[in-house]
Design a protein that fits this description.
Helices cover about 35% and strands about 20% of the residues. By secondary structure, it is an alpha/beta fold. Strand 15, helix 12 and strand 16 form a beta-alpha-beta unit.
Length: about 500
């Protein structure tokens, strides 16, 4: 019998008012139904927002260290259930167990970091320009946060958003991706078990066009944190502007790894294999372009082709699998379309490019890891985000040319340079247009206590992760205390 899941509103698990639902299936085996989830309505969102608004009035008054203690308990529960969560996540979205274990660990790290921030929501004291007057600025919570997340990191990304939001004294209405509702539901169950009061976190399942849009445009939602495509992010930003709510957008990427002629080629090879084909290329930080110095181009491309052909596709729950499935049929069709585009544009298909024909893979959305060489900078496969296991290889004559090629995109999330020359490394750090730059490390692998986000059309300037995310989830309040016993007019009486 198929398990039926529900929304959580004001601490109670309940069906959608529509009575409608959809099936959540395993992308490695489409015959495996994980459960059914609500197709919620505008009215469901309204109930969740109302619950969060009422809960905010009490939650904002809970001392931040006490909120942090609940974050610590959440981290403890995630740690206890790490393996269970990882296996559940692999079944739901496909990436191999080593990666889903890392996904859960990122949530654990974020919980413990948030717990410590409960005692570090620092403000500032500054000298007043007038005598017998005190000036300071403090952080205060904002209100109801709308949290809209993707499927590729179904636990880590919601924790990046909800843990800082809640620790700061806000409440949340959470809309997870339709492809990964089970992981999101388990996360919320754990948050409630740790002691969050009713209404502080609410989860509403359903379509982005209904649930997501209602959250974004709702008058009683004060801020939005969204991770997804640049196209959707642009529309979301327009819709949210009608109510002037604060919006954090973490959007697309077209990340590149540069390999210089002095690089450790074996190390760079490990890096690009992980960066391009980890999570089956379905990361906003995935290595989608590889820029090789002309002196090592042919040798490195041969090394890469051999290793890529030996990667084993399979169910992520199997220890023998290196690369899991694509998330769903529509996304695999999109990847196939880009392979066709690359061939038509004149790029050289080095390996992959096909749907595998092994019997054991026929019930899943698998696609071979694919490499194109002789890619020109303005080809679509070199400029558009594919979000799949497709790598475009370009050639450069110098670091300067390589950096120019890397910057030749509307995106600016992650970047990587492999070189043994410290001078070149610092030149690259200075000149690359990206929110993240790695030296002798792949384009993937951000750590929970560091700022995460990009420039250009990768986002709108906010950062998740680390200490910087707390700037988004709090307002600054300036406070003046005059104990002179008389009217003192700043900028007038003191000059």
């Amino acid at each position: 019998m198929t398990t039926k899941f529900k929304n959580l509103i004001n601490g109670k698990w309940q069906d959608s008012l529509t009575g409608e639902s959809y099936e959540n299936r395993n992308p490695a085996n489409w015959n495996d139904v994980i459960g059914t989830f609500p197709l919620s309505s505008i009215e469901d969102v309204n109930l969740a927002v109302k619950s969060a608004r009422i809960a905010f009035e009490k939650w904002r008054l809970v001392p931040a260290p006490a909120r942090g203690e609940i974050m610590r308990k959440i981290g403890d529960l995630l740690s206890l259930r790490k393996e269970e969560l990882a296996r559940e996540m692999t079944r739901e979205m496909g990436k191999v167990l080593a990666e889903t274990r890392g996904d859960v660990q990122e949530g654990i790290d974020t919980a413990y970091y948030a717990a410590s921030e409960g005692r570090r929501l620092f403000g500032n004291t500054v000298p007043s320009e007038l005598p017998n007057k005190f000036a300071m600025a403090i952080r205060v919570p904002i209100g109801v946060a709308g949290i809209i997340t993707p499927w590729n990191f179904p636990l880590a990304i919601p924790t990046w958003k909800m843990f800082p939001a809640i620790l700061s004294g806000n409440t949340c209405v959470f809309k997870p991706a339709m492809d990964t509702p089970k992981t999101a539901t388990t996360l919320v169950e754990i948050m409630m078990e740790a002691g969050l009061p009713d209404g502080v976190v609410n989860i509403v399942h359903g379509k982005g066009s209904v649930v997501g849009n209602t959250i974004v445009t709702h008058n009683d939602v004060d801020l939005i944190s969204f991770t997804g495509s640049t196209l959707v992010g642009k529309q979301l930003s327009k819709d949210a502007s009608e109510t002037l709510k604060r919006v954090s957008l973490e959007l697309g990427g077209k990340n590149a790894q540069i390999v210089m002629d002095d690089a450790d080629l074996d190390l760079a090879l490990e890096g690009v294999l992980w960066g391009a084909f980890g999570t089956t290329g379905q990361r906003c930080t995935a290595t989608s372009r590889l820029i090789l110095h002309e002196k090592i181009h042919d040798k490195f491309l041969e090394m890469l082709s051999i290793k890529t052909k030996n990667l084993k596709l399979g169910d992520g729950l199997l220890s023998t699998s290196d690369v899991g499935p694509i998330i769903n049929e529509a996304q695999r069709k999109s990847v196939q379309k880009y392979v066709e585009i690359g061939i038509k544009e004149g790029a050289n298909l080095i390996c992959g490019g096909k749907i595998p024909n092994q019997k054991e893979l026929q019930n899943g959305w698998f696609h071979e890891p694919t490499i194109f060489a002789d890619v020109k900078p303005n080809m679509r496969i070199a400029t558009e985000e594919i979000f799949g296991p497709v790598l475009s290889v370009l050639k450069c004559k110098s670091l300067e040319e390589g950096v120019n090629l890397l910057n030749n995109t509307i995106y600016g999330l992650s970047s990587s340079v492999y070189t043994k020359d410290v001078n070149k490394a610092f030149q690259a750090i200075r000149d690359i247009q990206a929110g993240i730059t790695y030296i002798n490390v792949p384009t993937i692998g951000a750590e929970a206590h560091m700022p995460f986000g990009g420039v250009k059309q990768t986002g709108n300037g906010h950062r998740e992760g680390g200490w910087t995310v707390y700037d988004f989830f709090t307002e600054w309040k300036a406070i003046y205390i005059d104990y002179s016993g008389k009217l003192q007019r700043a900028q007038i009486d003191n000059y």
